[in-house]
């Protein structure tokens, strides 16, 4: 019979060996400084754009990990509304987008504060208020086992089983105390912020205290630990990196949930943080290129062309999926094929777009 970490006599006293991680941890600190420096040199407008883009990316991907597909524009409008940037308060129909936006922004604003039960309950309410089928703002209470399962009925596989509901209040009291006492400047400070973030996420997920929303809140807790460690709201999207290889994430969690010796888990999570930093550097570089692009072409392109360019820019670093075609241009700009073809040709001549392929398969991508 499988025994889980919380069932073992040494729970929750995690042990680990950082011998092979010191170089990676130093590199993360250097990258954090470099990213912080790049952000500091952005104008206020570009800095705001960078924060919005980051929050949108994180909200979309942390939801996608849990099987929820949110529309980018709903999330972006929700975030801008919450930040007070969209004075017109663009209406957002999807309450899930509003919820994840509220959670992301609150976590960012309150990163310095000690963790409390009330804050966790507030986050759960923000995140899950759209769902009438679960208890929100309180720990789970059902007698049914809380299991992480994959597969179909009859061929399902239990990856993990959390502590019974009756143990959750005590376990969460211990978790909150651990989180606060391991913060910088406290009694049991964990020196390396990525290590503390890795443990915080695993510890919280092992308890699985809510009926739903545990993964998203657990990832926010990891980012809170990182922000406290570096003493500013970190700019990175852990969820984007995790979503890119979701199987590795669940495999690592599965292994870590069976022992309180968690060196392998910390190595995995430190690598996730490092990859997330690389992604955010690319994102900031893209924002700088985008700003230079608009400065150069804002008075050169016509209204139709600018509308299409802005739509292509929304795809971010990864680029506009499949490239721009005359057919897509016709749809976005609401023009005839002749006008679309002429506009695209002009944009190639201006070096705004690069032509890829020829004939019927011709596509265009931004020349940044």
Structure characterization notes:
With about 375 residues, this protein is mainly alpha-helical. It has 2 domains: about 20-285, Fic-like fold; about 300-365, Arc Repressor Mutant, subunit A (Orthogonal Bundle). The protein has helices spanning about 20-40, 45-65, 70-85, 95-110, 115-130, 170-180, 195-205, 215-230, 240-245, 245-255, 265-295, 305-315, 325-335, 335-350, and strands at about 145-150, 155-160, 355, 365. The strands form 2 sheets. A two-stranded antiparallel ribbon has the order 1-2. Strands 3-4 form a two-stranded antiparallel ribbon. A hairpin with a 6-residue loop joins strand 1 and strand 2. The radius of gyration is 23 Å and the shape is elongated.
Summary of the model, kept short:
The protein is mainly alpha-helical. It has helices at 22-40, 44-65, 72-83, 95-109, 117-128, 168-181, 193-207, 214-230, 238-244, 246-256, 263-297, 303-313, 326-333, 337-349, and strands at residues 147-150, 157-161, 353-356, 363-366.
